[in-house]
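Format notes (please read before filing issues)

Several people have asked whether sequences and structure tokens are stored in separate files. They are not. Every record keeps both together, in the order shown below: the sequence lines, then the token lines. Line labels are part of the format and must not be stripped during preprocessing.
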Amino acid sequence: MRLVTLAWLAFLFSIPLWMSDLYVLHVLIMTGIFIIAAMSLNLLLGYTGQLSLGHVAFFGIGAYVSSLASLGFEAHLLPGVLVKMEPKPVWLGMLCAVTIAGLCGWVIGRISFKVRGAYFVIVTVSFAEVIRLVALNWVELTQGPMALNNIPALRLGTPELFELSFLRKPANYYLVLVVAVLSYILIRRLVQSRAGRAMIALRENEPLATSVGVDVTKYLVLATMVSAAMAGAAGAIYAHYVRIVDPDVFLFIYTVTMVIMVVTGGKGTLAGPVVGGLIFGLLPEILRAAEIKPEVQWVIYGVLMVLVVYFLPEGIVPAVRNWRRRHHEPATAAAPPASIEPAR
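Then the structure lines:
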């Protein structure tokens, strides 16, 4: 299994070396960004069982915070109180984006995990809508519908010695791939730790987990904070890649896209969001390349999603795992034990 993983990583890292079509690289970059966001949502939905339909808020917060820190801004926080920030290096803006998105996740977790079920969903959706309205109407800070543009690309190093620029698509592809791999490793280590086992226990049976001393609020808030920070990182990468951000980044369809990737790939699995993201991130572009009419494309997209959910209710990754388990069991495992005759 480890060899298969290494082979996949080697293939993914080799793509810019032989792929000359920049549009394909662009599609892979955008798909990778949403895979990172889907992995962050899976930490909540898959490992704690909490459905957040406002997850795009953290993605948008990361995009706006990193953009504003890199561009600099002046805005009146209160009447007579002017807040001014000079432009900062892009890497520092991205760190600010991750930090502030994580803090927003902590605040929302502390507030919303006092309720459960539909109430939690309502809180997250409301939070996303409030943030969207702030981005739309606080024109002095966010430029509103006119958007923040000319966002600088990420640069590492110093111009005098060595500078690595992420202006071109191959460099951005590697950036997204590295962040995706690090996010995968972080989630894996977290879910295999004591905190991760506590999250899974809460998902399976919250009253039982509480009865044996699991602190419900503590672990749910931890999951929300890490998930929000990771979504903020995805948003920051998105902002410095497309170099323009407007309030449409908070559209509900982006949350729906993340949920589709998680559910169809297999929630509560490490590879689920990756598989779901690759399928439903690349499928629209494949259908478009086939020159199928747009309305037919959406019909095929929807039908495929319904078929996956209907025939593979646990998701693609758990279904493949169960199939492999059934077909790789030793033949002797099902055979009755041989009888031993008593010695004469």
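For reference, the curators noted about this record: The longest helix spans residues 216-242. The first strand starts at residue 73 and ends at 78.
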